[in-house]
Amino acid sequence: MRRHAFTTLLPGILCSIPELRELRIRPLGHPGFWDQFAPPHNRCFVAQNVRILHISESFPILMGGALPVVSTIQELASLNIGFPESDWDDHANYDLQPDDWDKGSIHPLSKLRHLQITSRITAIATLVDAIVAPELEDIQLESTLRESSVVAAAAIRAVLGTLCSRNKSSIRKVHLDLRGLEYNPRRDSTQSSEFGASIFTLLKPTLQFQHLRELSILVSFGFRKPLEFPGPTMLTAWPNLRKLLLHGVVISPDSLRAAARACPHLQSLTAQGLSEDFRHIPASTLDQHDGSLRDASSSNAGGHGLQELRLLRPSDMVPADVIKIAQFLAGLFPRLCAERSSGRGIYSSRSWNNVLKELTKIQVSQGSRRA
Predict the structure, then answer these.
(1) Does residue 311 sit within a domain?
(2) Would residue 164 count as lying in a domain?
């Protein structure tokens, strides 16, 4: 059967499957094909019981055809929007003018909880503005193409501004994959480095997500100096945080102390590596840890509950630093699991493995003393 004929038959097929809950629609290529899914008698999508929908369409057709139709699915809880490979280039038409699509034709999705969009950051900004979901809990955004730093910064501000105005009380999970914004050092290394250094300034609106439980930030700007997470200034805003992933970002001792104090429910933390500040922490025995460590870990009975500290690309360490870091971690996170912190998929590092081995020895020794 030719594809055009099958596309014509598909609405009727969907009508005959009322129990359908998940649907994936490949690019249809024309707004008229999408109109078939919403017949004239009620202008509603033919499969109203669909809960999970995956669609892939070029940007103009998405805005002018697909979204007005799928936004009529009253039970829709999860929407995943992608773009065909033909749109993944620098010349694809993402710059629609306000007259090119009618925002009022896209209906609010009152039951939508999960939204995932993979596109360039400018298109993401337009889509987030167009899709009104007052109960949205989980937002996953992946930027796929390079933009100028000025354009990218404006788009990130627009995305977060929209989410904060609509969903700051409902958002529980945020995933921001900005690795597609990686700069070309031959073109504009100075401007891009400044953009990378200011990324956490751009992300400050996320501090308004007062019920945030999971946060993933993935960046890859190729600086000479690694990007450092400003934990002490950000973590206090997320007391319910359970999981934190920082790809392309290193963490400092102060950030870990801040996590121990401000995020008592944090169970998993992933970062690119440890900052250079760890080389300068003082050597100490577990009985001589400073008061800040004791205070930070004593808020939970038995110490802070962090179980997993994963480093994606840890740097080499001298033996003295290995012992210092293991003692530091043991004092701050007594429940840290060495096995889970050295899981698969992590860049191999003998130094980090040695830290985890030393950590296990300390934990065994602590257990023996308590017994």
Answers:
(1) yes
(2) no
Spatial CA neighbour of 219 closest among 253, 190, 245:
245
What is the signed CA dihedral for 342, 343, 349, 354, rounded to 10 degrees? 20
Question: Is 160 a domain residue?
Answer: no
DSSP structure string for 59-74 = HHHIIIIIHHHHTT-T
Query: What is the tens place of the pLDDT at every residue in 99-134?
Result: 566 788 999 999 999 999 999 899 999 999 999 999
Longest dimension (CA), the chain: 76
Nearest to 147 by CA among 124, 116, 114: 124
Residue 283 lies in a domain: yes
The answer to whether the CB of 293 falls within 8 A of the CB of 329 is no
From residue 169, alpha-carbon distances to 115, 163, 296 in Å are 16, 10, 27
Q: Which of 148-157, 166-175, 343-352 has the lowest mean pLDDT?
A: 343-352
Half-sphere exposure of 323 (CA within 13 A, CB side): 7
- Which range marks the domain in which residue 340 is found? 248-371
Domain tally, the chain: 1
pTM of the model: 0.88
Q: Which long-range contacts (CB under 8 A, 24 or more apart) does 133-136 make?
A: 133/108, 133/109, 133/166, 133/167, 134/108, 134/110, 134/166, 134/167, 134/170, 135/110, 135/111, 135/170, 136/112, 136/163, 136/166, 136/167, 136/170, 136/171
Q: Which two tokens stand for residue 192?
A: 């891009």
With cut-offs at 50, 70 and 90, classify the pLDDT of residue 169. very high
pLDDT band (50, 70, 90) for residue 290 = very low
- Find the angle CA(101)-CA(102)-CA(105) to the nearest 5 degrees: 130
